[in-house]
């Protein structure tokens, strides 16, 4: 059974490829500010937002690293990614932030079903 108001935000875009990562983080922060439990799942190029070491974007582009650093202040503590996504883009789990949890591919369907709302960015 799912919590009636939990939210999963799935982020599939790299920090500087478009505004979608930023919009996904903003949606998560707004929901959390209103007391909704929020988890974040990073897949594909979205994993780049989880790297400990990040470069900067184009001039005038807002950095996502400060937003990532303040997620805990909004009680967004569960950051997830899949082992398959890491393998697909060749990123070792040691390169990720310390609070990232890994999911096996076979666990993904059950993981997604525990959320009452899912947003994709």
TrEMBL record:
<comment type="similarity">
    <text>Belongs to the DsrF/TusC family.</text>
</comment>
<dbReference type="InterPro" id="IPR027396">
    <property type="entry name" value="DsrEFH-like"/>
</dbReference>
<dbReference type="Pfam" id="PF02635">
    <property type="entry name" value="DsrE"/>
</dbReference>
<dbReference type="InterPro" id="IPR017462">
    <property type="entry name" value="Sulphur_relay_TusC/DsrF"/>
</dbReference>
<dbReference type="InterPro" id="IPR003787">
    <property type="entry name" value="Sulphur_relay_DsrE/F-like"/>
</dbReference>
<protein>
    <submittedName>
        <fullName>Sulfurtransferase complex subunit TusC</fullName>
    </submittedName>
</protein>
């Amino acid at each position: 059974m799912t919590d009636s108001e939990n939210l999963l935000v799935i982020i599939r875009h790299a920090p500087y490829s478009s505004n979608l990562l930023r919009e996904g983080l903003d949606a998560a922060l707004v929901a959390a500010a209103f007391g909704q439990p929020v988890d974040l799942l990073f897949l594909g190029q979205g994993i780049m937002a989880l790297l400990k070491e990040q470069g900067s974007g184009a001039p005038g582009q807002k950095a996502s690293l400060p937003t990532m650093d303040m997620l805990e202040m909004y009680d967004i503590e569960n950051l997830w990614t899949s082992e398959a996504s890491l393998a697909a883009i060749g990123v070792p789990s040691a390169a990720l932030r310390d609070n990232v949890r890994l999911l096996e591919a076979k666990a993904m369907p059950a993981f997604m079903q525990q959320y009452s709302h899912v947003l994709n960015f």
